[in-house]
Amino acid sequence: MARLDSIPGGEKKMMIELDCSGFENRRPFIAPKPLKDRRISILSTAALNLRDDAVYQRGATDFRVIPGDVDPGDVVMSHVSVNFDRTGFQQDINICFPIERLHEMAGDGIIGSVANFHFTVSGAAHPLELEDSAHAIAQTMKADAVDTVLLVPI
Amino acid sequence: MGGLATIFEEEGLATTQISLIRLHTEKTNPPRALWVPFELGRPLGVPNDAAFQTRVLTAAFELLDADSGPLLTDYLEEAPEGDPETDEEAMTGMVCPISLPKVEGAGALMNELSQSLTREINSLAPWYDLAVRKRGRTTIGPSGLEIEDAAKFFAAFIENQQAPAPRDDLAKGRVLKLAYEDLKAYYTEAITAQPGYGASLRVENWLFNETVFGQALWKLREICRASDDEYYIYLGRNSIIPDRQINAPEDSTERAG
Fold first, then answer.
1. CA distance B208 to chain A (A)
2. Domain boundaries in chain B?
3. What is the pLDDT of residues B196-235, one digit of tens each?
4. Do B200 and A87 touch (CB under 8 A)?
């Protein structure tokens, strides 16, 4: 379980002391619209990449693109951390990149549509270090008519 | 993660997110977040359970209906911890999953590591092949090496840190990291094709304590921690053995994210 009291001491200490600053006075909030009208893209911090892409390096602040019609067999993980479970991802990509669930929800009319492009970064970096990548990703999402981002950690 | 949501929202994209570390979400205060009580690495809760995953997603998407925020909501449904019945059978020997070469201590192991690893990999091959057939995929690949070549390089490095890397487009330490992560994936994909290994800790305990490869990873950690190379020191500190397998967890500085 990802409750702090179940995480080992060193990892827990790091989690508690982790610098999360930089967003204290930033409070954007977009007004709601019906879920059935939303076009959704995934942003994963699991350092996933396509099999033929460059792997993530230590301290990476760049991003990778995962097509909406990706074959799950083409997606691998190059996250540097060993302090999370990978066996779930090995058994089912949707455990951290729920692309098939999104397609099902779109097929059922629950969400409007699934984006043509989805994105990954390495969550080992501070979000402020990822800001340039986030802006670049946002531009591509908007060009793909995306209006909603589902952020999924690892 | 919460900071990224803020950036996207400022860009005009509505966001909803899953939160695994509630404290971080409280600190970054993103527009909408669903805290889930699942282990790190499993933000949707349960692999191969589409209904469970859809319930999590539905709860995350419901936050998009709110007129104001920020919102941080708790998801209360727990993920089942593996399969208690088959896990118990495996723990007590009623299920004998794989006959692996006997681990006879680090000294004997290291004398013929490459051969021992090869035997162990071969013994796991039927289960790895079954896993690939069942899942239609493998997550092995980031090293760019065949698993046998990854094992040879891994063993050669442990025996002699001057051993050349099998590819020269990345630093040797990075190739080493990718090679042993691919080997970990081979082992864990194979063992999770068996009954009794649904819980990640059960898999981890087996890998690091009951296999030749696991013994070699502990040895690699020793080598890296004694190195004067900054990257190998980094690997040895927190990028080979998970913290929950180590009784010196204050060494950890790497986060999953």
1. 13
2. 2-74, 84-248
3. 998 999 999 999 999 999 999 999 999 999 999 999 999 9
4. yes
Nearest neighbour of A30 by CB, restricted to B12, B60, B241: B12
CA dist list (Å): B49 to A89, A112, B142, B182, B225: 13, 23, 27, 25, 40
> Considering only residues 25 to 54 of chain B, which have any Cβ-Cβ distance to chain A shorter than 8 Å?
27-31, 36-48, 50, 53-54
pLDDT digits (tens, 9 = 90+) for B134-151: 999 999 999 999 999 999
Q: Mutation test of the interface with chain A: which of B34, B64, B253, choosing the one with the most A Cβ atoms within 10 A?
A: B64
Would you give the distance in Å from CA A52 to the centre of its chain? 19
Within chain A, what is the greatest distance between any pair of CA atoms?
45
Q: Model confidence over A97-154: pLDDT tens digits?
A: 999 999 999 999 999 999 999 999 999 888 889 999 999 999 999 999 999 999 999 9
ipTM comes to 0.93
Report yes or no: A137 and A63 within 8 Å, Cβ to Cβ.
Answer: yes
The model's pTM is 0.90
CB spacing of B23 vs A8 below 8 angstroms: no
Tell me the count of A-B CB pairs closer than 8 A. 323
What gap in Å lies between CA A107 and CA A105, rounded to an integer?
A: 5
Show the DSSP H helices in chain B as ranges: 2-10, 22-28, 50-62, 84-92, 106-111, 113-135, 147-159, 172-191, 200-210, 212-225, 230-238
Which helix H or strand E contains A75, and what residues bound it?
Answer: strand A75-77
User: Is B57 part of the contact surface with chain A (CB cutoff 8 Å)?
Assistant: yes
Q: What is the DSSP letter of B186?
A: H
B33 in Cβ contact with B71 (< 8 Å): yes
Q: Which residues touch B48 (CB under 8 Å, ≥6 apart)?
A: A91, A92
